[in-house]
Amino acid sequence: MAEIPLVFDAPKRGMPQKHFADLTHEERVSAVQELGLPKFRVDQIARHYYGRLEADPTTMTDLPAAAREKVRDALFPTLMTPVRQISTDGGDTTKTLWQLHDGTLLESVLMRYKDRATLCISSQAGCGMACPFCATGQGGIDRNLSTGEIVDQVRAAAATMAAEGSRLSNIVFMGMGEPLANYKRVMSAVRQITAPAPQGFGISQRNVTVSTVGLAPAIRRFADEGFSVTLAVSLHTPDDELRDTLVPVNNRWSVSEVLDAAKYYAEKSGRRVSIEYALIRDINDQGWRADMLGKKLHKALGPLVHVNLIPLNPTPGSKWDASPKERQDEFVRRVIAQGVPCTVRDTRGQEIAAACGQLAAEEK
Ligand code: SAH
């Protein structure tokens, strides 16, 4: 399978010092041995990090006292410092703004429901995909996140949930960035999120969703990894003419190429692909587009697809708006009439600019 084209490779400038979560098992073993520690310490440290959700070795009291600071300095640089935290939905939704070691800002959103807790994480600081309706896309890309910076968002939220006597159950890569443009680090993060403790956080693969603009070759490569993670494809319209402007990368991989790749993913993973569709008033919300969407998806993916409608969150200064409720209902009805399940996503966190596509780090 071809590598992701270089044009999507964000600058490496600003990557943090290597963290425990950036290393393979072998690299961890040599790192602790360099500190003069036996290799069983690797598993012990992993149990602290993935199992007890601790990121500071000075609190790992079963490590020899003299080794704790050395382990911290060599393997646990501070990756993220919380700058601000805002809550809404009666405290059920919290957005955290993090500052990275080089000053880069990034956001993650924790949503608590009755039966689950979902964390929306970022894979890049900013995004290079330039979708005109998305606040992050408007700001451009700062840099890729390191594996550790992705994984540590999960650790921090899992620790928050544990402190609340609950558990983090779901992860969606729907924060800032295009996950498949930071391919290797995102794959490593997915492995660490889903591996059972002490190799990972033990979150079920079925409860992890990777959302992409539709980098077709990367979707195929992702399918070949053999995960049963859910793939979400941000389609937003079934026709190339409009998609060329709504999701500019469509100029490179068209709707049919993206749907072919999605089908390959669905077949390999056995998971339904989720088609993301932000409904924008008078732009992509026409009844005929709903019919076309339903027909194309049914033809391309049969039963292996589900449409997730997202009422547009208007970004500041945008001329676009969400569709009226009746238009939305009609759209849902017409997609379903083509034999494709379609639901409207609940939009948590709107008042705190934590909803879909709004993670633009306002203080930038
Ligand atoms: N780059 C990836 C993941 C990040 S965005 C992707 O595009 O899939 C997560 C989802 O939010 C995507 O479906 C994206 O299109 C959608 N989104 C972005 N801005 C939005 C907005 N203003 N209103 C509603 N959805 C938006």
TrEMBL record:
Task: Give binding positions for S-adenosyl-L-methionine.
Answer: G177, E178, S211, S234, L235, H236, N313
List required co-factors.
[4Fe-4S] cluster
**Family matches, as Pfam families:** Radical_SAM
- Active-site positions, per UniProt? E107, C356
Domain Radical SAM core, first and last residues per copy: 113-351
**InterPro entries named in the record:** Aldolase_TIM (IPR013785), Elp3/MiaA/NifB-like_rSAM (IPR006638), Methyltransferase_A (IPR040072), RNA_MTrfase_RlmN (IPR027492), rRNA_lsu_MTrfase_RlmN/Cfr (IPR004383), rSAM (IPR007197), rSAM_sf (IPR058240)
The UniProt entry, under SMART domains, shows:
Elp3 (SM00729)
Which GO molecular function annotation, any one, does this entry have? rRNA (adenine(2503)-C2-)-methyltransferase activity
Q: Which PROSITE patterns match?
A: RADICAL_SAM
The reactions it catalyses are: adenosine(37) in tRNA + 2 reduced [2Fe-2S]-[ferredoxin] + 2 S-adenosyl-L-methionine = 2-methyladenosine(37) in tRNA + 5'-deoxyadenosine + L-methionine + 2 oxidized [2Fe-2S]-[ferredoxin] + S-adenosyl-L-homocysteine; adenosine(2503) in 23S rRNA + 2 reduced [2Fe-2S]-[ferredoxin] + 2 S-adenosyl-L-methionine = 2-methyladenosine(2503) in 23S rRNA + 5'-deoxyadenosine + L-methionine + 2 oxidized [2Fe-2S]-[ferredoxin] + S-adenosyl-L-homocysteine
Q: What is its EC number?
A: 2.1.1.192
Keywords, sorted A to Z: 4Fe-4S, Cytoplasm, Disulfide bond, Iron, Iron-sulfur, Metal-binding, Methyltransferase, rRNA processing, S-adenosyl-L-methionine, Transferase, tRNA processing
Q: What class of enzyme is it?
A: transferase
Q: Which GO terms describe its biological process?
A: rRNA base methylation; tRNA methylation
**SUPFAM superfamilies associated with the record:** Radical SAM enzymes (SSF102114)
Gene3D superfamilies attached to this UniProt entry = 1.10.150.530, Aldolase class I
Cell compartment(s), UniProt = Cytoplasm
Family designation:
Belongs to the radical SAM superfamily. RlmN family.
NCBIfam families found in the cross-reference section: rRNA_mod_RlmN (TIGR00048)
**Miscellaneous remark of the record:** Reaction proceeds by a ping-pong mechanism involving intermediate methylation of a conserved cysteine residue.
> Any idea what this protein is called?
Probable dual-specificity RNA methyltransferase RlmN
Q: Which organism is it from?
A: Corynebacterium hindlerae
